Amino acid sequence: MDVDLRLVRYFLVMAEELHFTAAARRLYVSQPALSNQIRRLETQLGAQLFDRSPRGVTLTAAGDAFLPHARGALEAIRSGVVDATAAAERDQVLRIDMLQTNLATPRAVLARLRDRLPSFRLEISSRGTREQQQRLLAGELDLALCGSTARCPDGVMQRIIRREALGVALPERHPLAASEPVAVRELTDELHYLPQDDLAPEWNEFVIACCRTAGFAPRRHPASNSSAGNNSAAELVRAGECVALGLLSTPAPPGVVVRPLAAGVPPYGWSLRWRDSPRTPAAALAVLRSLD
Prior knowledge:
Helices cover 40% and strands 21% of the residues. By secondary structure, the chain is of the alpha/beta class. The strands form four sheets. A five-stranded mixed β-sheet has the order 4-3-5-12-6, sandwiched between helices. A three-stranded antiparallel β-sheet has the order 10-7-11. Strands 1-2 form a two-stranded antiparallel ribbon. Helix 7 links the parallel strand 8 and strand 9 (219-220). Helix 1 (5-17) packs across helix 2 and helix 1 (5-17) crosses helix 3. The longest helix is centred in the first third of the chain and has 30 residues, at 61-90. Mean pLDDT is 89; it is low at 225-230.
C-alpha cells in the first residue's frame, strides 16, 4: 500500500493538536480541506484514526497504533534528505584554472572558496588563458581566472572581481630602486621581461600598451618560461639583466625591489569566467562576487 507522506504529516499535526482548526492553521490549509485529507488517509488505511465528538477529537486505538510508525516514517525521510544532501556536497568538484597561484588574487580566490565552500573539492590547473577558453567551452572547466582584457568568446560569461595596482621589479642596485614612485617613461631604455605569449597574452598586451602610452615600445628580454614565469623573471631581474612590470602585491625576493608606478597607469583587472550551462557554479560565483 502506498501512503502519501503529505497525509502522514497532516495526521501527525492533527494528532498533536487534536483540534481541526488549530491543526489547519499550522498547516496553512482550510479546516474542510484538512478534514477531507484525514478522511482520505483513513480510507487508504482502512481504519478510523480519530474519534470526532462534541466533546472534542481523540485518537482511536488504530490512530494510537499508527502514530509511532508515522513519526518514524517522517523522521526517516528527513534523515534521508540530510544524508543525501551531505553526500551530494561531498561529491561536488570545482574545476578552476588560474595563472600563478602564488600571486595575491589567485591566492585570495582559493582562500575564499576553501573558507566559504569547505564541502567542495577543488581541482586547480594553470594551463594559460588560451586553453582556459577552449576548456570552458568544452565543459572541462567550471571557472577560470584571468586578466579582464583577455578575449571573451561567445558562450562564456565574465565578471571583474578585483583590480590591482602595478609596480616594477628592479635589481636592488638599480638607479631607480630608491624612487617612489617610478614613471613608466623612466624605463624606456631598459630590457623588459615578458612571459611567453601563449601563457598570458592579455598580460603582455597590457604591459606593452602601458609602455606605448609612455611613448616607447619595450625591448623584450629573450628568455621566457611557460610554467614558472614569475620565478624566472625574479632571477633575471636580480641578475641585473632586465626589469619587469608586475603587480604591486607580488612579493620581492632578496636582491629585488618592487616600486609602485606613477599615477596614470591603469590598474590590472582580474576577471572570473564561466560557461552558462547546467553546471554553472552558482555557489562559487556567489562567494566570489568581489574580492576588493
